[in-house]
Request: fold
Amino acid sequence: MKPIKYNKLTNDDPKSLIDGCYHEMITKNVIPINIIPFGNDWGGNYFCLNKNDGSVIFYATDSFDPNLSMDKNHALVQKRLASSFKEFMDKLVTEEDLD
Reply:
């Protein structure tokens, strides 16, 4: 999860905070403007809030197709995980609980 406020573990790197990451990824056109990254996996892909409907999506940053437009790529790399942040959090399990 990305912090909302400065955390000494991030050495005050603005890109490590939710808003800094969002602005950096929008500026670089990595993500569409309707999603806000709040966390990432070990591979650098994002867990995001969809500003349009409040859902949580997984956003794969490493699956872009150079033959498609950015808009099409942005749409294809999203996978809906939950209809809300609360539902997403309620579905989380510990590593020991995985089969």
Remarks:
- The chain has three helices and four strands.
